[in-house]
Amino acid sequence: MPPELTTPGTGQFPADLRVAVLGGTGPQGKGLARRFAAAGLDVIIGSRSAERAAAAAAELSEATGRPVAGLDNHGAAEAGDVVLVVVPWDGHGELLQELAPTLAGKVVVDCVNPLGFDKQGAFALDVPEGSATQQAAAILTESTVVGAFHNVSAVLLDDPEGKPVDTDVLVLGDEREATDLIQALADTIPGVRGVFGGRRRNARQVEALTANLISANRRYKAHAGIRISDV
Amino acid sequence: MPPELTTPGTGQFPADLRVAVLGGTGPQGKGLARRFAAAGLDVIIGSRSAERAAAAAAELSEATGRPVAGLDNHGAAEAGDVVLVVVPWDGHGELLQELAPTLAGKVVVDCVNPLGFDKQGAFALDVPEGSATQQAAAILTESTVVGAFHNVSAVLLDDPEGKPVDTDVLVLGDEREATDLIQALADTIPGVRGVFGGRRRNARQVEALTANLISANRRYKAHAGIRISDV
To answer: Which of B8, B205, B219 sits opposite A212 (nearest CB)?
Structure first.
């Protein structure tokens, strides 16, 4: 029997910060955008297609009763104070190269898992910089890059009823103020705790762990997440 | 509030299998040996030094009221039906090369985390084969290699009172019979569940995740473990 979970406690996410979700029309991005809107935050969905972004934003506005904006990725990057990157790994570096000037001075949260898939399931891809988070940091030298939200089930996030999600979010970064902020952002999702998980150089294994959760999902017909015990 | 944890259920660990723990005088190895002896299993501690192995075995016999044997690593490898490798990463490959003929036909459980440490804490080391588990499998071509017990706190394991440990053990391997067996072995430790975590090719991130747990331990003054939710 696990002891009752307590929250590490990093304060409230400031209500005046706008949260942009690049790739916010994909399952993971839309699920996160839904949860943040439901928590009362100002959310901007970004997508390669401004039309699809606007459609997803309208859907989430309707569902949550909150205004949600939909823009192309560039517009969303510009509008957000905190910018989540939830795009496919394929094209991750190119998109960040393009957006680097726009993202200067902002907290950028990389949520991308570099995974490959074959008949035996998912596996981690090698990244020259070590991880998606480290690639983002190498490109976005004027931003503060945090890694987070790697292991949260898209299906559970995108639940219209907003049921609590039984998982912790490991938050990785080298700047305490930014990791505290993103832990507080994770804490806005019912059931979720943001837990500090180390520096960016230790992001690879957290991204890659998603492959193990996919294996567990297959074996146990589950939407597996992780909890950090004794924290 | 997490739902009550249930056990994935892979059956009982067979009482007639002897469990050898190579590196059983180190904190992690001794903690595992203590728990397996306390669970009523036949345990053999292996060490580079037969004298130190015998001393640790005598201590655990006294503590658990069970006979525990202590031998050099070669003797322990020979005596065990299931052989856990809990040695330092430095020397891991060399030891397994030496023991390969002795370990043929056995289930070998690699528990080793290839980590480095510097002023900023722990970080994952690159392994040419991908992970310690994959290195073991590459060397021990006549054994069945499973990865497990990477993220369990040595301090919590080596508790003389045998208090439950609030963690799951991710078990990695390509042979179902062997991963089921080692899940059942993990289940013998109070509080612990053995959970299938994927194939050996996905072992690296589970080994490396120990660096993240060390970061969380520093931040929260904890002995962090992991639980897989929704399983």
So the answer is: B205
